[in-house]
Amino acid sequence: EPEVTQTPSHQVTQMGQEVILRCVPISNHLYFYWYRQILGQKVEFLVSFYNNEISEKSEIFDDQFSVERPDGSNFTLKIRSTKLEDSAMYFCAVTLWDYNTDTQYFGPGTRLTVL
Amino acid sequence: ELKVEQNPLFLSMQEGKNYTIYCNYSTTSDRLYWYRQDPGKSLESLFVLLSNGAVKQEGRLMASLDTKARLSTLHITAAVHDLSATYFCAVDKPNQGGSEKLVFGKGTKLTVNP
């Protein structure tokens, strides 16, 4: 499986603070995604990103969220003013184009704790 | 709205036994995925099922897809403790831009007891 790294592995922040979560794909991927998983719950789609543009976003991805790929490598998720309910695992996922399949490979995740 | 339902949500089984996890989804989709998640870890891709009647096997796990019934199954054969994990099915919902957002089920937490 292609490697995707995420930093930091764990982020603790105060409510109202800004956080930036980073995803570093190793290979040359096509699509990038952010998902979140609140503890003990299912995985939820946040946003997809292709060719330096948002392709799709969910209702969760409101004005407090933004994504970018500033240096053509790192893919970042920014939460401008964190809320308690933003506490979750955030996973970056990437897609490698394959003519037979289009599996999304997930990074190790960042655990965000908002106090 | 695409919905994905798994059952059971919790499954406790004895080593050596067989069992099946079910995944129903509400609308037509191109692909169905099965992922495994260990506690505190990421999601590991197990299977991608692309067409009606598709069957894939890896070790003690076998996944199948019936697109007409909108049903996928994950069958566990002769379970071993190492299979203890949470298993998620996910269905893709492609958009015009080409990306595919995955819609996940709630997951099935499997515990295999010695």
- Which class do the helix and strand fractions of chain A yield? mainly beta
Distance between termini of chain B?
A: 41 Å
Cα-to-Cα separation, first versus last residue of chain A: 35 Å
* Proportion of residues in helical segments of chain A: under 10%
Would you mind describing this structure in some detail?
- The complex is a heterodimer of chains A (115) and B (114).
- With 115 residues, chain A is mainly beta.
- Helix content of chain A is 0%, strand content 52%.
- Chain A contains no helices and 11 strands.
- Chain A has strands at 4-7, 10-13, 19-25, 31-37, 43-50, 53-57, 65-68, 75-79, 88-95, 104-106, 110-114.
- In chain A, strands 2, 4, 5, 6, 9, 10 and 11 form a 7-stranded mixed beta sheet that branches.
- The radius of gyration of chain A is 14 Å and the shape is globular.
- In chain A, 36% of the residues are buried.
- With 114 residues, chain B is mainly β.
- Chain B is built from no helices and 11 strands.
- In chain B, a hairpin with a 5-residue loop joins β4 (32-37) and β5 (43-49).
